[in-house]
Specification:
- The structure is a homodimer.
- The first copy, chain A, has two domains: about 100 residues, Jelly Rolls, CATH 2.60.120; about 40 residues.
- Chain A is built from five helices and five strands.
- In chain A, strands 1, 2, 3, 4 and 5 form a five-stranded antiparallel beta sheet that branches.
- In chain A, helix 3 crosses helix 5 and helix 4 crosses helix 5.
- The interface between A and B is large, with 37 and 37 residues.
- Chain A binds a DNA duplex (30 and 30 nucleotides) through helix 5.
Chain lengths: ~170, ~170
DNA sequence: GGCTTCATATGATCCAAATCATAAAGCTTT
DNA sequence: AAAGCTTTATGATTTGGATCATATGAAGCC
């Protein structure tokens, strides 16, 4: 899996769920006006496309972010394993529940009105793992506003930034 | 269960998941500055507090919206039933997966910049089931902006509103 | 009936974030 | 090393949504 590789695309029929062994995959949806929205990012040992087992079509694109390896598990395998192995069921359920909580937290973050507060919340939640532009997009801000928020927060002494190159 | 009844509160230890038989329950979180955020609304036959089986404490409040009956299922019961009854496991998983999709759709909606477009998307998604104020809060708008969006959309001929009293 | 409360609705004003513009630093690539 | 790209960064301007103010109609209550 190389950088930019598309593992599946929105509206394609679902084949099953995926496990990231190494590397990183982002799930994104393109809206009608063309701009992309990152919904989830799966890193090593993370699962994605969990919803694929219940829906017939993927509802977002999966694009490779960091080169690595991905394991595909077919839909039928998942369902049969769930029937035979309760531990797997439990683990899978737990995983989905964690996702639900994560999304809830994200929605809560998006409800924060002020850009500064939203940026702080995002950084505290560990969202700042790539570029500022990417962080900004994830929390519905322009990169300009995000840079300014960083600057102001540093000026206020609420944040200290070191080594810009690697965040 | 009467209107305004609190079924559980944020940070209380979890007891299990709940099923709405009749009535309606909203899950909401209060932020630090005191204003509430609706995360989910469960109507008849809906489950809520699914995440309770994996976390030790509730991470939001459950408040009765419309009087009715709610069934509580203990955490241990859920886990043991999952072990013995694969069909239950499957159904539960499906439910969580649906939730994940719902949240993803919601996040996507919140990414819509223009108030007018966001309101349209919300209405199309079936969010307008109560008051305008409530709809506005759910999509991170003030009720004023929401009313204006409705008015403008009607003026543009993109929407027709009838019978204001009951939406 | 009169009172309160809430949802609806709109006008006026303000402000923060978007937009537009520009530039330097860093990094690939040729 | 020069060219081309992205990321970081900030200034100037605009604008759309928030805020504040106000009014009306409907529901509930004593």
């Amino acid at each position: 899996m190389e950088d930019g590789d598309v593992l599946f695309r929105q509206d394609q029929p679902t084949s099953g769920l995926c496990r990231v062994v190494t590397g990183c995959v982002t799930l994104q949806r393109s809206s009608l006006n063309g701009d992309k929205l990152t919904l989830h990012r799966a890193v090593a040992d993370g699962l994605f496309a969990e919803a694929s087992i219940i829906s017939e079509r993927y509802h977002c694109d999966a694009v490779c972010n960091v080169p690595g390896r991905v394991l595909k598990i077919s839909k039928t395998d998942v369902i049969s394993t769930m029937r035979t192995t309760p531990v797997f069921s439990e683990g899978f359920t737990r995983l989905l529940a964690v996702q639900v909580q994560r999304y809830r937290a994200h929605i809560e973050m998006l409800a924060i009105g002020s850009a500064k507060e939203r940026v702080i919340a995002a950084v505290q939640a560990g969202y700042f793992d790539a570029t500022v532009t990417e962080l900004a997009t994830r929390i519905n801000l322009t990169h300009e506003s995000c840079y300014r928020a960083f600057r102001d927060l540093c000026e206020d002494g609420r944040m200290i930034r070191t080594g810009r190159g690697q965040p």
